Amino acid sequence: MIKLNYRNADSLIIGQENGLDIAQEFTNYKERIAEIITSLNQRKDKPGQWLQWMNLGYSEETVWYVKEFASMVEGRFDNILVLGIGGSALGGLAVTEALLKPYWNLLTKEQRNGLPRIFFLDNIDPDTMNGLFDVIDLRKTLVNVITKSGSTAETMSQYMILKDMLEKELGDDYRKNIVVTTDKETGILRQLANQEGYKAFVVPDDVGGRFSVFSAVGLLPFALVGLNIDQIVNGIKDMDLALKNTDIYNNIAAQGALIQYLLDTKKGKNLSVMMPYSSRLKYISDWYVQLWAESLGKEVNNNGEKVNIGPTPIKALGATDQHSQIQLYNEGPNNKVITFIRIDNFDTTLEIPRIFEYTNVNYLAGKTINALINAEADSTRVALSDYSRPTMTLTIDKVDEYNVAQLLYMLEVQTAIAGELYNINTFNQPGVEQAKNYTYALMGRAGYEESAKNLQEKLANV
Ligand code: PA5
Which residue, judged by its Cα, is nearest atom 3 of ligand 1? Predict the structure, then answer.
């Protein structure tokens, strides 16, 4: 299981001004935390609560359909191209980067055991898109269009371009190169899928984009590139069971949520840095940033009061960002809490050879890169605590399907508990919808004429 070490957020280590009396706070919040965990588990099956993501580990039907489709198309495609943005892309990107062999897309087909390469088009930069079309053969590409709403402008414009290109290349057969993942009934993409006869998977009701990684949104691309989705599901289920524990002393998601909440609200640490010491986990920080930001950054609380709250998440990568951000974290404003992710056992070992007899880098010779990266994680943590900066460390045994699924699911539960502590709606995103609607207006979508007029006036003045 994943371990959480929060000692360096404790006032015993970093002093009272910046640290928490964690033992005392656990006592103070014991009942509230038990109430929150009980309530989340009681509400999870109720429609409209947006807690269906807590059931995704138990959806045997999805796993079955995903596996069936993956085996049906096995060997047919050289590339999987995922079209999606935000919650429809970040989880897939984070998990495939973590679990596929590094530089997967650069390996030969033999080195990939015949499995396809995978690309995520999670933006609409025309140069990047055209650049991608130059390096993949669309006839051998399976396009997975993922959008819960079925109408997001970025994803739908990409879909329209790809559909047109595929049709030109393949004639009527182009449909075999498209699979969609969207709402079961609503949205333009669902209508199109029905009309065109695409194979379609469902983003279940009451699962928001940023909590959708373990639905078909993630599981389908994972299965298509040969990841072990049974191990992913086992990881979620075991973590879910562990996090049903209502005792704060035995629930790491509750501990992480409470410590971050109190550091923000009592000690002014309103920046939350996620810093894995593993390049393979780099995109887990991107995924976490969206999860924490969209879930907790809210204008009003559950009582309807204007609060404008939410800790700002920041992504960092160890050891790389020791040479970029750590100067600020050690000596700049003491307004952050940093979560490190540390890997006990890397898949491979790399020894540093003794190639010089007398130099002052010889202390490295005979050691491993594995030892060096973890020594750097430990040194950075200790240095930060010397500067009275709060940190926590999540340790995972190794980067595999089981552990990565556990980590992501734990962070989802941590976010849900933090949302309850902040007393806000964790699962809406009115601030995102606002900008989406403005885009529709600017691009001339029917029904948005009034908005478009107002926007044009505003744009003319700035
Ligand atoms: O987490 C969210 O809800 C958002 O980030 C969405 O995933 C994102 O806006 C894309 O939406 P959709 O999946 O409807 O295209």
Answer: 209
